[in-house]
Amino acid sequence: MSSAPHQLVHPGRPVRVGFVIDTLQPGSGTENQLLLLLRHFDRKSVIPALCCLWDNPALSSLDCGCRSELLGFHRLYSPEGLRGLQRMRHWIRREMLDLVVTFFRDANFAGTLAAWSTGTPVISSRRNLGLGYWHTPWELRKLRWLNRMTRAFVANSSAVAEYTARAEKVDPSRIKVIPNAIDTDLFRPPREGEKQALRTQLGFSRNELLIGCVANLRPIKGHPGLLDAFALMTRDLPQARLVLVGGGSEHDALVAQARALEIEGQISFLGSRTDGPELLRSFDIGVLPSKAESLSNSLLEYLASGLPSIATDVGGNGELVTEGANGHLVAADDPEALAEAMRSLCASELSRTRMGRMAREQVEQRFSMAAVLETWYEYFTQQTRVGPELNWS
Predict the structure, then answer these.
(1) Strand pairing partners for 288?
(2) 161 in the same domain as 139
(3) Are 129 and 206 in a shared domain?
(4) Pair (318, 264) in one structural domain
(5) In which element (H, E) is residue 84 found?
(6) Residue 284: phi, psi to the nearest 5?
(7) Which pTM value belongs to this model?
(8) pLDDT tens, position by position, 251-283
(9) Are residues 200 and 266 in the same domain?
(10) How far apart are CA 295 and CA 131, in angstroms?
(11) What is the CATH number of the domain that holds 59?
């Protein structure tokens, strides 16, 4: 991956921004996005600094591209937590930060308190739709209290922005939508001859139609419905193969389901991989059957790789896939509709080529590193100049 910052030409001194997260390691969408930002901000425009609440095995060897601080606590309401909060206050002052940006629940709580106590404006990120324990009634009460100390919010999709405004009682004018960025040099369409060469290396036939799904094998990702849909469509298309990339708790159940549907011979379970960009360049179609999404990095990677994509119409998926233009949207938990969308794309190479080209063009225009970093910079400069009145009522 290219590590050279994207250069932006702006007057005045750089904005000094501190990013606070529970811990940082490559893997999940939010951590990968933060690493992209830290490594690619043009230091003439933005000088980033990183603060992690606790350690992990990958952190010491991780090149995040900026100065970092490790506080060393898991619980704020503990002696270690209180000392960590004080250390964060010192870190904010030492780095002479203009802004603090928080990610995840614990870092949001600690980062907001520390920044507010030093008079440093806080931008709080929102990257989920509140599923599970994230937004219990108690968590929502804490968030609404913290939000009084927060200058502004960033959501990675309009769906997340709308949910945040509704659930957390945030004025929509305080929420900025900044989508995830994608490295368009790393995730790109295959060059001439590359697709077949990759398939040979991976053990796939040149005549197979590869439908790829990159998602952890967890219930929220909707794999059982995908297997049901594939069983429906593969009766007419025996050359189709479903390739599942990702590990997780549902692996054994999905293998058993594939066997019961008598499609185990047409499904490849590849597990967790580190060669994602190459895998995508070997596929014909990308599919994402999730029951919920904020803004899917997997879907962005499909589109950047020039893959026509099929996704469930949930969360921010409709902000990436335009029906009939770069792919198809289907209702969640509708295997018949998903089967028909896969069947339609498998049947038409012309449609796959047209949609794949449109997908790549859309990503280059809206989700490239240069476009997204420019949006972040403009928002940083806006928030250092002016912020809304805080409501303490």
Answers:
(1) 311
(2) yes
(3) no
(4) yes
(5) helix 79-94
(6) -100, -30
(7) 0.88
(8) 999 999 999 999 999 999 999 998 999 999 999
(9) yes
(10) 14
(11) 3.40.50.2000
